[in-house]
Specification:
This protein is mainly α. The chain is built from 12 helices and no strands.
Length: 255
C-alpha cells in the first residue's frame, strides 16, 4: 500500500506538471498573439489574446494589446455605433492596463489611442473634453520611451487638431473649459509627425496623416510629395489600400 507521504508527493508532482503545462500553453499562445499583432493581423491576434485573458485575466501584455487591437478594428467599421462600441471597449481595457501598471509605455499609449479614436466620432464638446487627456497619456507614453513612433504620431495629430479647432470646438472650449488646451501648434504637429515617420518609415498611416496635415496647412508641394511617396510603399496593413486611394485623390486634387 502506498504510504500517505508518498501519495501526497505523487499528487504534488502531478499538480506541478499540470500547472506547468497550462503555463507553457499560455506562454505559447501569448507569443503567437504578439507575433500576429506585429504583423497587423488584428483579429487573429485578438482571438489569441482573449484566450490568454481567459486563463490569466490580469495578463498585462494581453490587456493593453486587446485595447490597441479593438481601437484598430473599430476604425474599420462602417457603422458609427459599432465603432463607438469597439472604442468604448478599447478604453475599458486601457483603463485596466493602467490599473495594472500606470507608468508603463503601452498602457498610456493604449489610453491615448482609445480616447483619440473615440474623439473622432464624438461631438465638439466631447472632443474638446478628451483633448487634455489625450495629450496627458501621449506625454506619459513618451516619458516612458522617447522613441515610440506611435506616441509621436498621437501627439502630432493632437497638435494639429487642437491648433485648428473649428468654430463649434472653440466655442465649446471657451464656454465649458475656459479656453482651448494650451501649447498646441502647427509647427509641433509637423515636428511630431516627422519624428514618428523617422522612427517608423514604412507605416503608411503616418505618411497619410502627415500628408493630410500638410495639405490642410496649405503646404501643397510638400503634401504632394508625401502622397506620391505613399504610392511606392508596400502594403503592410489591411487599411493601406484605402489609405493609398485617399492619397491618390489628394494627388489628383493638388496636381
Amino acid at each position: 500500500m502506498i504510504q500517505l507521504k508518498t501519495l501526497s508527493a505523487i499528487i504534488f508532482l502531478l499538480f506541478l506538471a499540470y500547472t506547468n503545462g497550462v503555463s507553457q500553453t499560455t506562454d505559447d499562445i501569448l507569443s503567437k498573439a504578439i507575433e500576429l499583432r506585429a504583423s497587423f493581423k488584428e483579429q487573429e491576434a485578438l482571438d489569441l489574446f482573449d484566450q490568454v485573458l481567459a486563463a490569466d485575466p490580469n495578463n498585462f501584455e494581453a490587456t493593453w494589446s486587446k485595447s490597441i487591437l479593438l481601437a484598430r478594428l473599430g476604425y474599420r467599421m462602417d457603422n458609427k455605433d459599432k465603432q463607438a462600441e469597439y472604442y468604448r471597449n478599447a478604453k475599458t481595457f486601457a483603463e485596466k492596463a493602467l490599473a495594472l501598471d500606470s507608468l508603463n509605455l503601452n498602457s498610456n499609449f493604449a489610453m491615448a489611442v482609445a480616447m483619440g479614436r473615440m474623439a473622432l466620432i464624438s461631438g465638439a464638446k466631447e472632443r474638446v473634453a478628451a483633448s487634455k487627456d489625450i495629450k496627458f497619456y501621449g506625454d506619459r507614453a513618451l516619458a516612458a520611451d522617447s522613441n515610440h513612433a506611435g506616441a509621436w504620431h498621437v501627439l502630432g495629430r493632437w497638435h494639429h487638431k487642437v491648433a485648428n479647432l473649428n468654430f463649434a470646438e472653440r466655442t465649446a472650449a471657451n464656454l465649458l473649459f475656459g479656453g482651448a488646451p494650451k501649447g498646441a501648434s502647427n509647427d509641433m504637429a509637423i515636428y511630431c509627425m516627422k519624428k514618428a515617420i523617422s522612427l517608423e518609415p514604412n507605416l503608411i498611416l503616418y505618411q497619410r496623416d502627415y500628408a493630410n496635415i500638410l495639405e490642410d496647412l496649405d503646404m501643397e508641394k510638400e503634401a504632394l510629395k508625401v502622397a506620391q511617396h505613399v504610392q511606392t510603399m508596400p502594403d503592410r496593413t489591411l487599411d493601406d489600400p484605402k489609405f493609398k486611394k485617399e492619397m491618390q485623390k489628394l494627388i489628383k486634387d493638388l496636381d
